[in-house]
Amino acid sequence: MNFLFFGQFFDRLNEGGPVFMYPLFLMMLICIGLIIFSFVKGDASGKLQKIVHHVGLFALVWGFLGQMIGLIGAFDSISIANDVSPQVLAGGLKVALLCPTYGMFIFLIARLGIIGLTLKKN
């Protein structure tokens, strides 16, 4: 991996709206950290597995909340504007899809971790 990849990654975080994307990034780090910790140290009580489950689900909902708030703002701007080009509309829709896509990705990471932890128990 080179530095260009990380630059593009953080550009996408900023493009999707830092208010929603950076908390999603933090949730991803928490999920990955808890999954790794559970694999290494174990989770006899299942408490860490439940936390991963809840953080993953919260990330999914947080991503869709970011999309809804972004779309409401975009539609407000479109209703005020007299002329909106298809390019501007397509660009806005692309940005609106970044939050839920990232939230779904984090949800999948959490789910795969939970599946792995469940398989490790048995």
Gross morphology: elongated
The total count of strands amounts to: 0
User: Kindly, what is the distance between the CA atoms of the first and last residues, rounded to a whole number of angstroms?
Assistant: 36 Å
Estimated helix fraction:
over 70%
Helix and strand sequence: HHHH
What's the pLDDT, averaged over the residues?
Answer: 87
Strand content: under 5%
Main beta sheet: none
Low-confidence stretches: none
- How many DSSP helices? 4
Query: Can you tell me the number of structural domains?
Result: 1
Structural class by sheet pairing and helices: mainly alpha
Supply Rg: 18 Å
Main location: membrane
Transmembrane segments: 20-40, 52-75, 95-119
Keywords: Cell membrane, Membrane, Protein transport, Transmembrane, Transmembrane helix, Transport
Membrane topology: Multi-pass membrane protein
